[in-house]
């Protein structure tokens, strides 16, 4: 196969995305080792990262470390990307005594709720929530624990010093998904949009998004956009981004207002089709590796499922809905190219892109619950990270050994029948 251009798409899933921490770390270390090797075996170049929610945090950490930075000369390296991933999850974890106590309380309440206990509904816009955060801060909770602004500022302390003129040379793109609440727009915060606005070389087409694709907007990459991607509406007020342009009902006219954003779970989890929205065919990735957090399949050992099991499954299905739709569209285009060739319009702008899945073991996927998505204990993160590294290590060996015979989506999104008890019909 030679060197393959790879885009990595990181699905959201709260604390479960610590699995992605491990996967990305292993991918980066493996790339470093393979690039230093003398053999001519297949290799890969990472040309893009995309993510939603906690997957967006992982993608941002890796992208920030891989991109040149005027204020931090350590940036622009794989070592820095790995260091930023480690920093993200060790900083996001409960560390101080009050954070440990708060995390334990949240876990106890969620587990009681899963078992049928009734709790009053919480409104993220209530003043009481703001007072609770202030109290936690006074008792010793750190800003990176309490909210995205503190976490992102600590993770990317020199974000304003990213060396944008060097980004086209490094061939590294970042896409983060979110939904704008009032318009219903599916929006991505895209480093290529930043390049276009700065007048720098970009691989993307310059489209009139206010008319032709008005429900699918591209914004320049900002830390506020990454925060928007992780704004769960049941937990946090909508992320506000000031003075944005939106389409109006009159063709060619826009209106300016503040944007209000929720988690990208409700739009793209994670962005995939945008990875292919480029000007030239050769700029498209050869492969997209999807790090899947929400399991595609569900085979409960106990057939008498309860309300909690239903909620868990609804949560996973919601997290997969947009992803599967985008991937299925890509499979359709791949089929058209194989059937009709790629010499005539519109397929002459397309290429076959292999989609592959990196997922948790079946046992881990079935044991995790909605409550564990909010567990910020360091031990919980470490277990998922270790599994991510183990899974990715074997996955990469198989990718290199099997080449074109290595499994692709949709089959590789499933679990082997031997792994899933009661999974009749699986392959």
Q: Termini separation (Å)? A: 27 Å
Helix content: 40-55%
Instruction: Extract low-pLDDT stretches.
Output: 421-427
Query: Which percent range describes the beta-strand content?
Result: 15-25%
Q: Radius of gyration over alpha carbons?
A: 21 Å
For the biggest sheet, the summary is: 9 strands, mixed
Task: Give a verbal description of the structure.
By secondary structure, the protein is α/β, with parallel strands linked by helices. The chain has helices at 18-36, 54-66, 78-92, 97-114, 127-138, 143-146, 148-155, 167-170, 191-197, 223-229, 307-340, 362-367, 378-402; strands at 3-10, 43-52, 173-180, 186-190, 216-220, 239-247, 254-263, 287-292, 354-359. Strands 1, 2, 3, 4, 5, 6, 7, 8 and 9 form a nine-stranded mixed β-sheet that branches. The longest helix has 34 residues, at 307-340. 40% of the residues are buried.
Summarize this entry quickly.
The protein is of the alpha/beta class and 427 residues long. It has helices at 18-36, 54-66, 78-92, 97-114, 127-138, 143-146, 148-155, 167-170, 191-197, 223-229, 307-340, 362-367, 378-402, and strands at residues 3-10, 43-52, 173-180, 186-190, 216-220, 239-247, 254-263, 287-292, 354-359.
Task: Name a few traits of the molecule.
40% helix, disordered C terminus, 427 residues, alpha/beta
């Amino acid at each position: 196969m030679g060197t393959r251009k790879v885009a990595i798409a990181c699905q959201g899933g709260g604390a479960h995305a610590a699995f992605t921490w491990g996967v990305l770390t292993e991918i980066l270390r493996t790339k470093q080792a393979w690039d230093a090797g003398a053999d001519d075996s297949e290799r890969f170049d990472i040309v893009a990262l995309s993510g939603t929610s906690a997957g967006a945090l992982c993608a941002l950490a890796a992208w920030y470390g891989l991109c040149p930075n005027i204020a931090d000369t350590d940036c622009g390296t794989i070592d820095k990307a790995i260091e930023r991933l480690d920093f993200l999850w060790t900083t996001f974890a409960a560390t101080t005594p009050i954070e440990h106590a708060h995390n334990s309380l949240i876990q106890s309440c969620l587990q009681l709720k899963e078992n049928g206990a009734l709790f009053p509904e919480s409104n993220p816009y209530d003043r009481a929530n703001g007072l609770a955060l202030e109290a936690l801060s006074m008792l010793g909770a750190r800003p990176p624990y309490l909210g995205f602004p503190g976490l992102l500022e600590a993770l990317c302390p020199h974000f304003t010093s990213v060396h944008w003129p060097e980004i086209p040379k490094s061939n590294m793109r970042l896409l983060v998904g979110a939904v704008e609440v009032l318009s219903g727009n599916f929006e991505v915060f895209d480093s290529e949009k930043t390049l276009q606005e700065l007048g720098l070389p970009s691989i993307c087409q310059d489209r009139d998004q206010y008319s032709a694709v008005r429900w699918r907007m591209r914004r320049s990459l900002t830390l506020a956009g990454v925060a928007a991607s992780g704004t769960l509406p049941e937990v946090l007020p909508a992320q506000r981004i000031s003075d944005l342009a939106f389409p109006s009902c009159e063709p060619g006219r826009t209106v300016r207002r503040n944007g209000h954003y929720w988690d990208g779970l409700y739009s793209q989890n994670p962005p995939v089709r945008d990875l292919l929205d480029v000007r030239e065919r050769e700029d498209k990735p050869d492969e997209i590796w999807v790090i899947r957090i929400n399991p595609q399949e569900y085979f409960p050992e106990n057939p008498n499922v309860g309300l909690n099991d239903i909620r868990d499954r609804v949560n996973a299905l919601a997290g997969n809905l947009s992803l599967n739709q985008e991937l299925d569209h890509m499979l359709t285009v791949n089929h058209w190219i194989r059937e009709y060739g790629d010499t005539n319009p519109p397929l002459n702008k397309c290429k076959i892109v292999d989609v592959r899945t990196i997922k948790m073991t079946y046992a881990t996927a079935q044991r995790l619950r909605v409550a564990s998505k909010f567990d910020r204990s360091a031990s919980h993160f470490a277990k998922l990270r270790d599994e991510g590294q183990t899974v990715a290590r074997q996955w990469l060996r198989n990718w290199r050994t099997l080449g074109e015979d290595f499994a692709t989506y949709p089959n590789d999104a499933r679990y082997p029948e031997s792994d899933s008890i009661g999974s009749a019909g699986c392959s």
